[in-house]
Write a structure and sequence with these properties.
heterodimer, A: about 400 residues, alpha/beta, B: about 375 residues, Spore Coat Polysaccharide Biosynthesis Protein SpsA, Chain A, UDP N-Acetylglucosamine Acyltransferase, domain 1, 2 domains, nine-stranded mixed beta sheet, five-stranded parallel beta sheet, about 20% helix
Chain lengths: ~400, ~375
């Protein structure tokens, strides 16, 4: 038996993030870069450690190489602990055979023995899809106060967006009486954030029952939560107020980066009382060259910038040569923008090269057909050749 | 030749040359002087040793070492938190016979002779912390063994000014780069071979030199070993011809920082295959405001810039307000400059606050230093 923990977190990081297309060809969604020096998984991991949760299982399946390497022993997030710390949990073989993770509930079910090692009263279920800062210990306090079996974090969303989420219906005391996954005509604006706290015994019971049901899709939203409600278990909604952004699509990922550049950002990355940690390489500070012009942007260590940059988020180790122009764009680590190239309203993947005088993306006002406009995407480790163009909304995953 | 770099001990002297930069070293060791936007001087030799495969390193410190302890922590950033060896801080009063006031390197080494012996390494590399340099220690040790010398001293031959040689040693070299004579602290302008104070020798030789000479009341490595024994021992020069800068006063500190604004210099110093590591502090990327203007500057993470910055070095967490002009300046960690200020040719130490509307300027050849924590 390991040291007992009150609460352990299970972070679902196995998703492909297929709606990010070329950006998740070689990495799992939680490992997608964000905000210059972060990857999406930094947010739930940092939230855990800042909330006093020091034991985190990270469930991986799709393209885990970058993610495994990035998490390492967890030291960057203060999660290299003698008891607990961060553990990568890939699918494994047992005497009964081998099975991939089939759905979120099944992934946790296959790792119940990991949870049991720490004998926790509570289990926090998290996903690696969102950008937000949240104190899970506040939510746990609420869970205990309400004597709940399951607490679901919810956020008020505009009614026209509600059909994209799992929508909860709660009484004034916070108790949930109904739940609809992605309703066509939403009647409530309380969206599930995909963050659950379970009392461990309840979690085990429902996961095990769900496994017995051969027709189930083995998913928290589709199976576990409805089953809890059906049986009249104490399920509560915990209202979260603050910045919370799903970054599961090209547009939302680009938006979330651009929001960091707004004058009044809701997400304060400079707040030392709730730091977002990341596993940094040891690059030198960045150089802004003699010919550079830069404004309204974020730039990370290791860059060399001698071109024009505005309204852009520049990750570590990026080179922007003299005479190149970058605006309203997100450049992932190691991207190179050669002389005379223009990158606008675009996301450029890791280590990709935009050659001389190439043109990626376009400003919406220059496009006549509104529907033809969108963020241009250059995938990971490819080249856009000299003078070549990537149209707005185009996504390329091979060199051109 | 059967050795590997884990069999080479590194000894760093954290405090030597502090007298040459009294402003910067008043509250810290030479080793913990901030440099180049995010580093401390000790990062250069430590990273170099770690990248060269050395895994047993001791830092000898004498006084004022709080900032050094804070910086080093568990030595994890340099990959020197090891089960076996790693980084050991050798503080004074390590034994009850210590006075804590060693006069020179030999006495300092004598105070930790049991540590040196205990590491059981065949070779030892000694270095100071006054160089901005990224040497390949593996190559140095190879060259030492190849030559069969007793001691190999790293040096650089160049045109030097009186200022640069006044507190340095210069070698007169004979055949095969053998050191024949050593001139110590003689201000002599001209083409010289300057001692960079990085030495490699067999640990057994080091131990016997230290024990013999200390028992005779001698303490100076430069004078009592290099100079006195130049005839008796085979001391060879190892010419280092990569990028480096030596900090010998505030002026050279300023110029060495500014040298990194040249992209090529920075690339030579911080090579991707031999990175320079430092303590991380989880800063967000630097943020450039609307209508700011930044040119020819080195900017670290965590900076927030709303004004004009030119030819300057901004360490982590520096803030520059709207309408403010910063030129030819070095602003250390967490310096906060308010709105409508003007800073010309200044060096601010950590946590300096410049209130709105202040003007602080100095002549171009003489940067003004503002000490840690001051509010203007």
């Amino acid at each position: 038996m390991y040291n007992k923990k009150e609460c352990v977190a299970m972070l679902l990081a196995g998703g492909q993030g297929s709606r990010l297309y070329a950006l998740t060809k070689k990495v799992a969604k939680p490992a997608v870069p964000y905000g210059g020096k972060y990857r999406i998984i930094d947010f739930p991991l940092s939230n855990c450690v800042n909330s006093g949760i020091d034991t985190v299982g990270v469930l991986t399946q799709y393209q885990p190489l970058v993610l495994n390497d990035y998490i390492g022993n967890g030291q960057a997030w203060n999660l290299d602990r003698i008891h607990g710390g961060v553990h990568i949990l890939p699918p494994y073989q047992t005497a009964a055979g081998a099975q991939w993770y089939e759905g979120t509930a099944n992934a946790i079910y296959q790792n119940l023995s990991f949870i049991e090692r720490y004998d926790p009263e509570y289990v926090v279920i998290l996903s690696g899809d969102h950008i937000y800062k949240m104190d899970y210990s506040e939510m746990l306090r609420y869970h205990k106060e309400k004597n709940a079996e399951c607490t679901i974090a919810v956020i008020d969303v505009p009614i026209h967006e509600a059909s994209r989420f799992g929508i909860m219906f709660a009484h004034d005391d916070g108790s949930v009486y109904d739940f609809v996954e992605k309703p066509k005509e939403p009647k409530s604006t309380l969206a599930s954030m995909g963050i659950y706290i379970f009392s461990t015994a309840t979690l085990k019971k429902y996961l095990t029952e769900n496994e017995m049901d051969t027709t189930a899709t083995k998913d928290f939203g589709k199976n576990i939560i409805p089953a809890l409600l059906q049986n009249g278990e104490r399920v509560f909604a915990y209202r979260f107020e603050g910045y919370w952004k799903d970054v599961g699509t090209i547009d939302s990922l680009w938006d979330a980066n651009m929001e960091l550049l707004a004058a009044n950002v809701d997400l304060d990355l400079y707040d030392s009382s709730w730091r977002i940690y990341s596993n940094n390489d040891s690059a030198a500070p960045h150089i802004i060259g003699k010919d550079a012009r830069i404004q309204s942007s974020m730039v990370t260590n290791g860059c060399y910038i001698d071109g024009d940059v505005e309204f852009s988020v520049i990750s570590g180790g990026v080179t922007i040569e003299e005479g190149a122009k970058v605006q309203y764009s997100v450049l992932f680590p190691g991207a190179v923008i050669k002389k005379g190239a223009v990158v606008e309203y675009a996301i450029v993947g890791e280590d990709s090269v935009i050659r001389e005088n190439a043109h990626v993306g376009a400003a919406p006002e220059t496009i006549e057909e509104k529907d033809a406009w969108g963020v241009a995407v250059v995938g990971q480790n490819i080249e856009v050749g000299e003078g070549k163009a990537v149209a707005p909304k185009q996504i390329i995953s091979e060199s051109i | 030749m059967s050795y590997n770099m884990t069999n080479v001990l590194g000894i760093l002297f954290a405090n030597t040359h502090e007298g040459s930069v009294p402003e910067l070293a008043s509250k810290r060791t030479m080793a913990s002087i901030p440099f180049g936007g995010r580093f401390r001087m000790v990062d250069f030799p430590l990273s170099g040793m770690s990248n060269s495969g050395m895994s047993k390193i001791g830092i000898i410190t004498r006084a004022n070492y709080q900032s050094l302890l804070d910086h080093i922590g568990s030595a994890r950033p340099w990959d020197l938190s090891r089960t076996d060896g790693g980084l050991t801080l050798l503080a004074p009063f390590g034994r009850n016979t210590d006075t804590g006031l060693f006069r020179g390197k030999l006495e300092a080494l004598y105070s930790c002779i049991s540590f040196i012996r205990h590491t059981d390494c065949e070779y030892t590399v000694l270095t100071d912390c006054d160089l901005v340099i990224n040497p390949d220690f593996h190559h140095l040790v190879d060259a030492h063994i190849e030559s069969g010398a007793d001691i190999t001293a790293v040096c650089h031959t160049d045109e030097y000014t009186e200022e640069e040689t006044k507190d340095a040693s210069c070698f007169k070299l004979g055949e095969n780069g053998r050191v024949e004579a050593v001139a110590i602290n003689r201000a002599m302008a001209g083409r010289r071979t300057m001692d960079l104070n990085i030495y490699v020798m067999k640990t057994s030789l080091l131990i016997s030199l230290v024990e013999d000479l200390v028992s005779l009341g001698k303490y100076s490595f430069s004078r009592d070993v290099l100079q006195e024994k130049a005839g008796e021992l085979d001391i060879r020069a190892y010419e280092f011809d990569g990028f480096y800068r030596r900090i010998c006063d505030l002026d050279s500190y300023y110029k060495a920082n500014m040298a990194l604004l040249d992209h090529e210099n920075l690339a030579k110093l911080v090579k991707s295959e031999r990175p320079v590591y430092t303590k991380d502090r989880a800063d967000a990327p630097a943020r450039y405001g609307f209508n700011c203007s930044v040119k020819n500057s080195l900017i670290a993470n965590g900076c927030i810039i709303e004004g004009v910055v030119e030819n300057s070095i901004l360490f982590r967490g520096v803030k520059v307000g709207k309408g403010t002009i910063v030129k030819n300046a070095i602003l250390m960690q967490d310096t906060v400059v308010g709105k409508d200020c003007c800073l010309l040719n200044v060096i601010t130490d950590k946590n300096v606050t410049v209130n709105d509307g202040q003007t602080v300027t100095s002549a171009e050849s003489c940067p003004l230093y503002i000490s840690k924590g001051r509010t203007l």
